[in-house]
Design brief:
Elements lengths: L1 H14 L3 E3 L4 H11 L3 E6 L2 E7 H8 L11 H4 L1 E2 L3 E3 L4 H11 L3 E5 L5 E6 H26 L4
Helix pairs in contact: 5-6
Length: 150
């Protein structure tokens, strides 16, 4: 079952993988994130990952400080050196990593260390909740079928 969970992480991450250049104004980054339905975007410089810009960065480092988002670049407020993990990471490992690193997003890397996606704590927890609900349904069916007269 864990293999399919890892592929679920990969599928979600690849479906929600946006990139932007580091010198892009925060306002443009937010527009792209809104259009993509994402709460984070990979930040590139010269074709390589230099960080991620998250809703958290917008709130804490721009709005919270009273800065004008049209005058601030994502490089100025992004999370530099985000936590990276192999794309084959399991749900349990991903949750442990999020907890241990005290972060909300993981950047998934392929075997060649190329970014293949970003996944949030919320998305990982949604996968886990769906799995628990499915397991609960299966157990309920098993118990009801095994009851006297069932």
């Amino acid at each position: 079952m864990e293999v399919s969970m890892a592929s679920a992480l990969q599928k979600i991450a690849m479906n929600h993988f946006l990139t932007i250049l580091s010198d892009t104004p925060v306002t443009e980054a937010v527009k792209r994130m809104k259009l993509g339905g994402d709460d984070a975007i990979a930040v590139n410089e010269n074709g390589r990952l230099v960080g991620i810009f998250r809703e958290h960065d917008l709130l804490e480092k721009v709005v919270g400080l009273g800065l004008n988002p049209a005058e601030v670049t994502v490089k100025q407020v992004m999370l530099a050196m985000p936590t990276t993990v192999p794309e084959s990471i399991s749900i349990d490992e991903a949750l442990r990593t999020l907890r241990d690193e005290r972060t909300t997003h993981l950047v998934l890397l392929d075997p060649l260390d190329q970014v293949v996606g970003i996944i949030s704590e919320k998305e990982i927890l949604e996968i886990e909740v769906d799995k628990l609900l499915s397991d609960n349904k299966d157990l309920t069916c098993y118990i009801m079928a095994d009851a006297p007269g069932g």
